[in-house]
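pipeline/complex-builder :: batch 7 item 3
reading input block
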Amino acid sequence: MNAHDHARSQASAYLEQLKDLIRIPSISTDPERKGDIRRAAEWLADDLRCIGFERVEIKPTAGHPVVYAEWLGAGEGAPTVLVYGHYDVQPAEIEAGWDSDPFEPVERDGFLYARGASDDKGQVFAHVKAAESLLAAGRPPVNLKLVIEGEEEIGSPHLSAFVGENQDLLKADVCVISDSGMPKINEPAIVYALRGLVYVELEVFGPARDLHSGQYGGTVHNPAQALAEIIAQLHKPDGSVAVPGFYDDVLPLSDEERAELAKKPWDEADWRRTTGAPMPWGEASYALHERVGARPTLEINGLVSGFYGPGQKTVLPAKALAKISCRLVANQNPTRIYELIRDYVARITPPTVRSEVRLLQTGEAAYVDRHTEAMQAAIRAYEQGWGSKPVFMREGGSIPIVADFQHKLNLPVILMGFGLNDDGAHGPNERFNIEMFHRGVQTAIYFYEAIAGR
Amino acid sequence: MNAHDHARSQASAYLEQLKDLIRIPSISTDPERKGDIRRAAEWLADDLRCIGFERVEIKPTAGHPVVYAEWLGAGEGAPTVLVYGHYDVQPAEIEAGWDSDPFEPVERDGFLYARGASDDKGQVFAHVKAAESLLAAGRPPVNLKLVIEGEEEIGSPHLSAFVGENQDLLKADVCVISDSGMPKINEPAIVYALRGLVYVELEVFGPARDLHSGQYGGTVHNPAQALAEIIAQLHKPDGSVAVPGFYDDVLPLSDEERAELAKKPWDEADWRRTTGAPMPWGEASYALHERVGARPTLEINGLVSGFYGPGQKTVLPAKALAKISCRLVANQNPTRIYELIRDYVARITPPTVRSEVRLLQTGEAAYVDRHTEAMQAAIRAYEQGWGSKPVFMREGGSIPIVADFQHKLNLPVILMGFGLNDDGAHGPNERFNIEMFHRGVQTAIYFYEAIAGR
């Protein structure tokens, strides 16, 4: 039985194993979940040992550990593939709108509903099971190195150092990452660009303590109002970001690239179906797929101030907080963007309040050359897995570590996403298309074979 | 021993009793505190029975009960005084910045620190203890009726109906309310105007669910941003409210009234000391004390949207909520103001999001004639209690029921506040000046005597 047939014969077993991994609530941002993070790492390490990886280690970092596994049995003449993924997940509270327990996976209408089902447990697990099938069917044609980290959802704060300190260990010929999506299941697409990230907190301070709105209202600049006034100045009426210098380093889209992207446009009907929002918004001179993929953005991720429970409290709050993040494109420096926001906010903050912009996270954008041999192998793998030729697309999300793999390890990176854009990653009712999981396993096997020239 | 001496001899006992009342966390907005609300009503009823009131009842309403007590022993020839106060309090969580448990009163530097110490348990209890002293010293010169409600902090939703249904029971010659403050302890001031209130929730809806900011950011109008944009349009750059028609029914301040108010100006140094804010804000053509007393205002009481915990979550939130309230002045109709806000918000909401303005509460402003006989009695009582003549002032807060006492019972109302403006009502570390409590008891006795012509 070849690896492809083996994977088909094990399809339901692989899915049940994925459910077990998903049941571990490995939320990296929550200090109370540290034990679950460890448990997920150990679960993966056990599975990797069990399926035949020669060397499996849970490598400590200053934060959550990295699971490292290698099988070098293909020998020195064969290419080495480095697979990167993450076993940590975003927070998920059932009250946020989940129809079922986010950590008890449920199959419904061909989807597996659970936090992490798509982002990224399901996608990285497709590679683990591809490796298992190849190992079960004989000698895999490539050497394999797996790096599965536990801090992607908090911005991979320690992975860059890990990569820098382990350059020899991680030596490979190509890096493959499955942590992205495509618009439609039957129209395969390869992501070649990811956005970078800068995450800040903007806090506005007014009176020294919460005040009675009747006794002081009308004489004190309300910090919640002042925060709103500042936020309202972060965008121009045309939907562009108003922070001076924000677009300075953005490389313009070439006509060739616009044409390539236009092969897979994001039509408004589909946009309406997946967002449920009244109508599109944003930079009118760019198509919807260009706005998320090729343009930097600034989003308010959260607001909090004063009293917001049921009922009423006539408080004049002492302070107001906004969580704000920017998605950046290639050639933008996240730290520089933070400084631009900080300076602009300082300039537009009126003297009646005080403001602070605190940097929480940065991550570089990534841009992948579409003309490498590795990319030809990826195109072939998708054609075999899907039965049709993939198109190229830009992805709006961020995987900051991609830039490190490119620059520190000098590796071509292939973003081999098995997710769908409406998987609901980071939101309630995240799901993974079960067919995509199985195609993912097959496509990963095809890719390893294509890289080896088979 | 006359009533004044009796009160002096019982000063520490009265303070200890007040502490017991304060220890009951009678938070009217919190459904889980219903038992404590009941307990506070029973505690008061027991005390009123014990000190000699002839008829004491806990009267049910559709919400929290009203404590009603009467002593009519002065006879039909004597005037009847109706005292109004409230035994419910604002919410208080120690995490909001309290230096000690909000429901365990602490004496420090002449102040009693606790939620409700000033607003309004301490102030209404001064009347209870004034009655106790008069009853202990012989036959009081006036008939007394006390109405102490449990829903003032949630806008007295059932007291208006209670007053309407009990017009005979509440028949009196004057109504006195101690639920306000003065700027300085040794400069007595009588409040003659209170602001009305309209409390609304403004909610902005965008996508059908929380989205991944990378996958959708740049194409969806972020509801937190849209809310900020709407809020930023609620005021003009000059600090006035931008809602069209907002000021239409505001009566201009007469020169005589401005001169009277200017006797007790709010100087900027004092404003800075009590607010701790960087510098004043608001309508520049009005003095600070006019902005809070004589002008209507619009305040953001709270904001909430998306993710606001520690760390980061790159969510594009589905919705954003603001709690907003207006303080209104005499002749403004709160329901009309709600309609103006609702219509204005509907007009400025862009088609890329949906918004709702929901009415939570209304309360009418109150304006008291400064030239009645009852007011002359109040002036005399303050002169005796303080040793100096009181000035008149407007108060920025709201006691919506005052308008009902004026119009439904056709009673002159006296606002006999024993609080100080920096008591921190509604905020953390609320406190009551202990000297103000004792002067309050004395001044209430003087007032009852003055009303009786003694």
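note: Chain B touches chain A through 97 residues (CB under 8 Å).
queue -> next item
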